[in-house]
Amino acid sequence: MSEAIDRYVQEHERRFLDELKELLRIPSISTLPEHNGDTHRAAEYAASKLRSAGMENVEIIETERHPLVYADWMHAPDKPTVLCYGHFDVQPPDPLELWETPPFEPSERNGNLYARGSADDKGQMYSHIKAVEALQAIYGKLPVNLKFLLEGEEEVGGISVAEYVARNPEKLKADVALVSDTEMYEPGLPTLNIGLRGLVYMEIEARGPARDLHSGLYGGAAPNAVFGLVELLAKAKDANGKILIPGIYEDVEAPSAAEKESWTHLPFDEKEYLRKEVGASALTGEKAYSVFERTWARPTFEVHGIAGGFTGSGAKTVIPAKAVAKVSIRLVPKQDPEKILQAVKEFVAANSPAGIRCEVRVLSSGPGLMVNPDHPAIRVAAKAFSDIFGKPTVFIRSGGSIPIVGDFANHLGIPTILMGFGLPDDGLHSPNEKYNIRNYFDGIRTIAHFFEEYGK
Prior knowledge:
Elements: H1 3-11, H2 13-24, H3 36-52, E1 56-61, E2 68-73, E3 81-87, E4 107-109, E5 112-114, H4 118-139, E6 145-151, H5 159-167, E7 176-179, E8 191-196, E9 198-207, E10 213-214, H6 215-218, H7 225-234, H8 257-263, H9 270-278, H10 291-297, E11 300-308, E12 318-319, E13 322-331, H11 337-351, E14 357-366, E15 369-370, H12 376-389, E16 394-398, H13 403-412, E17 416-419, E18 434-436, H14 437-455
Parallel strand pairs: 3-6, 3-7, 7-17, 8-16
Antiparallel strand pairs: 1-2, 2-6, 4-5, 5-18, 8-15, 8-17, 9-13, 9-14, 10-12, 11-13
Helix pairs in contact: 1-14, 2-4, 3-4, 4-14, 5-13, 12-14
């Protein structure tokens, strides 16, 4: 990496951190309508910083829900074009009482920056903008052509950005996309993610009697919507973690022997993983598969919440008329979300208890995918990552989902470099989310170095 870039980042670390804190103070919670204005403010902040960094044609694109931000710089003839993606919306901070410091008042502790959105994804997204600033400040130009597409709906499904990508393939045309919304396998170990699971997120609503009933007068005869929903969900997966929905495993493709063998060389201690990351008394799931296979290469069925009946203080003896569960299935590459959804609907129809009518509603869906680690841009990214962190880059999968990666593949025909700087214990979506401050600065260096190397 050029000494000039390294020096520029060092000289501006305080300002870079203060700017990120400004962005983190904006409570851009995309799922809550009362924060729509804040999500728009975050878009305006990102747009202003893209302009300051030297990007051109910066625009805030209004959608039916939350805005997108676009910018480009296309003055590097015969050089590749990189499409940078990130999101400026965040998850709700609840439960607030578990935060050591307020979620939207960034706090520095133990080398980390604590705030909602610090790692997911404001801190990582903002590193891209600061890398551009550094290159422009030093050279007055960029080594590659760049386009930015930032969104404010990632945490609620990303429907607007998906539609925008589908409608604008020429405007967004690029050689490769760059996304920093993942994590390093462990501190100091450069990590590129080459596989993502997909997601089908649903609500399953169960209805029993026409209204809540008195359990003394009707108990034993009337169907109970909450219990009926629990009974249905219990049929979907057995105690050993096997999903019992017919057809769910039909298109599951096992990782290659070489990929599985490479995972054995990753630093991993199952007991430490259980104690430090999971924090439970035991791991669950399909015992015939390793933890990496269970979390990276196998489909899952999870219940995220159930609502229904009486949950206030004291007692109220009702038989609930309605109950709703939030449910998801994580998909692996080759699985078709539409096919899986149809399997779920057929399973629900066939297994709803007597007297219970169930409806499946889809909130979001997207396929899993793999990226070819031998793509030239990914090889360059691996080298750039190694140059900055001083260790060979490892290739892993992620159990999470980033739907935009599939949209880039389907509509733009380009692979995505998943170059993340988060850490496994950053607490994404949880109280006390954090982002390592050194990783923030090293992320800026790495991205700038990647642009330089890819431009060669």
